Amino acid sequence: MNFFRGVMGGQSGGTQPSGVETIQKLCDRVASSTLLEDRRDAVRALKSLSKKYRMEVGTQAMEHLIRILQSDRSDSEILGYALDTLYNIICNEEEEEQDGITDRAGHRQGGAQTGQGTDRAGHRQGGAQAGAGSQAGAGEVIRNDGLLLLQQLTKGNAAIQKIVAFENAFERLLDIITEEGTSDGGIVVEDCLLLLLNLLKNNSSNQNFFKEGSFIQRMKQWFQLGEESGGGWSAQKVTNLHLMLQLVRVMVSPVNSPGATASCQKSMFQCGLLQQLCTILMATGVPADILTETINTVSEVIRGSQVNQDYFASVNAPSNPPRPAIVVLLMSMVNERQPFVLRCAVLYCFQCFLYKNHKGQAEIVSTLLPSTIDAQSISAGQLLCGGLFSTDSLSNWCASVALAHALHDNSNQKEQLLRVQLATSLGKPPISLLQQCTNILSQGSKVQTRVGLLMLLCTWISNCPIAVTHFLHNQENVPFLTAQISENLGEDERLVQGLCALLLGICIYYNDNSLENYTKEKLKQLIEKRIGKENFVEKLGFITKHELYSRAAQKPQPSFSTPEHMLFDHEFTKLVKELEGVITKAVHKSSEEEKKEEEVKKTLEQHDSIVTQYKELIRDQDAQLTELKEQVQLLTRQKEQMDITITQQLSQIQQHKDQYNILKLKLGKDGAGSQGDVQVNGVQVEELTALRVELEELRTQHTLLQTQLTEKDTLITSLKSEVAQTSEGSAPASDNTKLLKEVEALRVQVQSQQAEISQLQSERHALQRRIQTTSGSGSEAEIVKLSELEQRLSTQTAETHRLQEEVRSHSESRAQLEKELAEANSTVAILQTEKSKLQQEVSESKKEQDDLLVLLADQDQKIFSLKQRLKNLGETIEDEDDLDARDQSDEDDDEEDEEDDGETE
Amino acid sequence: MAYAYLFKYIIIGDTGVGKSCLLLQFTDKRFQPVHDLTIGVEFGARMITIDGKQIKLQIWDTAGQESFRSITRSYYRGAAGALLVYDITRRDTFNHLTTWLEDARQHSNSNMVIMLIGNKSDLESRREVKKEEGEAFAREHGLIFMETSAKTASNVEEAFINTAKEIYEKIQEGVFDINNEANGIKIGPQHAATNSTLAGGQGGQQAGGGCC
Predict the structure, then answer these.
(1) Interchain CB contact of A221 with B (< 8 Å)
(2) What is the 3-state secondary structure of A727-765?
(3) Choosing a second label site near A515 at 20 to 30 A (CA), which of A128, A551, A596, A827?
């Protein structure tokens, strides 16, 4: 808040210490009181002091007030006091403050914070509305205070305008406007609209933000006026709509950058805003001032935008039969009973419709041309002619200017308009429009009429030599103009004199010397004799020196405080600016100078033609150059390809040579120097070695099989011998050990049994002896013993049988082994046949090799011939030895590749 | 045009580092070698696409001069992203980064994504600040880093888009409160479709109430 102190510094003498102290106390209370009531009272007291002690409250209380806005936002009363206080401080400050950066900084903090406060208040407002009605009243107060405060803050301060916009003000304000019923809403809507105007007017950054935020689309709903509100045009609604229309105009103002305006115009058409405005334009019962502002708004929405202009041309009034809106508007323009501002608005609309619109200009002029005149309906052309020649000078002026706008920057239409013929009273021949204009001019009508007509004529014939010739062709025109200029007339006539001088000047400047009496030279002589150069230039200067001239030059919209002031047209002022200088120069120039200039011009033209000739030459050469470059490129590409083939062939040659050397070496080693085999293809050598290796493998396989066979043979023989041994029952073979052991065991058993038998026999002997002694009493026991022995014998014989059985099974297994041997023999036979097959293959490949040798010989021949050709072409072929050395490493790789190929074959 | 999200950016940094040129290159794809000093702030906007979603960027280009500092500070709080720009050919602009960063951190919401930009990368011969230094500064302070050239348009798109990507990711992670517009993020009309219809309905009721 330094700036406040700074401002205060100069005035400190006038402040009362008591006030400062009171404020200090109040501030302390605001800052330190815990009770809301105390704080509220303190802020209320500050509010009451804020008007008288603006500076003091501003320096001391601002921070506290801002804190209150944030911390006590739940209490609407204290918020209201705080906002009021801030409003008092800042709003009165406005006039004294000059924009300094520090000022802005101070402002900013107030602005941003209160902006926030308002947003919150706005939010709260929504909630309050949903609740009790009484509370809504309180919320409204704060919101409205906030709006007023922001209005003050944003006036003429771009930085604050931007900050407020950044804090989403557009969105909030548009929401409030919608909530409040748009144009039907009360003063709050008006406040919102005023704030929006503040934020957007002359602030391109905010305008861009507004457009980019798609807020233009939201403006559309403002203009959806229901028909039901019959007679419901309250003063508030008119004010609101007026502001809404102004907001639209701010976005598409001709003073904005062309790009920005164009993009806004585009989106206004795309979202239907323009269509909505045109509906109002054609609606009935719209108050005149709203209608006027709507026309002005439509004008600026279509100005210079072809799409919007085309749309406007297609709008029809809902009359029966339907008439184009343009025609209906022009009817108002040439109607004396219509309000002046409305007529100006229509003229502006017409101008904007034709601004940079060649198509529209042609359409308007065509309604005047004989071929297209439609007698049935009223056309724009008819209305303009009617206005041009009516008794109402205002209509004359408006129609002249309107018609001039159909000709601006359009030499084609200037020529077309020369064709227009007017039917005068019966029995007289038709008269041209140009003639009629000059006739009226010479009849000495009102200044307004003559100014209008002179502006039309100047626009018409400027930059159009044919029109100049037409104008000069009328013998009365030049004398009339010279008379007007040279006469010493009163103050009112000065502007007419100036315009006459301009018209005559145009006749000189755009003269093509086609009329012998009125060549440039003759006209200049005329000026010198009849008027005097200095006098002429002075009269010409009357135009720009006119008090109304600079006003008209400021902006395109025609705005005049009274109908009498309606003298200058904006576009015409541009034309004057453009021509005044060149005409002055043209008049001052002597004939000699002119001749010199002509000569210079001619030489320049000659130079130009020479330059163009050279340019063409250069262009031709350029084309040739590119063609040749292309050729060169093609040839170099071909050469590269040739080089590649050559190197390929060289490497091939090298390869062959290497192979040749290898074969030679081999042949030397082998001693088999048969001359036919001298040149052997390397590939085949490799093949041969491969086959040899294969053969070797097969041989080893064969020997392996043979050893296996012998092994098998030995096995068989050993088995045979074993079998023989087993059949003899003695020789212990590895397979028969078990049997042998068994046999051994049996033998042992037999021995033990024999021993038992002998023991028994001895026992028997002993018993026989005892029997002999004991007389036949023991014979029975002996029989039992005998039978026992016999039983034993039978078991033993059975066992012998079993052993014999076993021997037989052994002989069977031997037979099986013999069978296996036979099988092995047959495998050997198969392998032998395979071997013979392979040997056959070897012989076949040898044959192939011979074929390849023949081929190789052919290739060699070819290479030789190619080499010869290369030599003939002038290509130097490197020494063969060099090639050997260089290609050695490459060669190896190639050979490997080829080896692979050979194997896959 | 319909968009899924709207992000507010600010561009900050010393005077003459090329803030306005970066914005112009991004919005208009052109370079203006002679540029007036920015007074206060200037606004620019462009639509981009991230993850198949249309995102509208609203960018406030601030004045670098010290005298405007108090004005430009007002914009920190409502921004979701900030481009902090220095000039690689002027060491002092790099040295001031700490001050800028302190200022930004103090006045912005804590989630604001800050992209550090070393501009004028086309003037390699006059370079005073190494790329590594910029990288190190960014690493140290948790910023994204890029070197750009508003003149050749190198990395300009990327700088704006990568910042948006970072914000977008933060939204996906739920870091940003997207319903609070004070964070510099707004959900587009079609995404808030349910909300807006509700609000519209309420608005209608209120309007009706007003009539009665």
Answers:
(1) no
(2) HHCCCCCHHHHHHHHHHHHHHHHHHHHHHHHHHHHHHHH
(3) A596
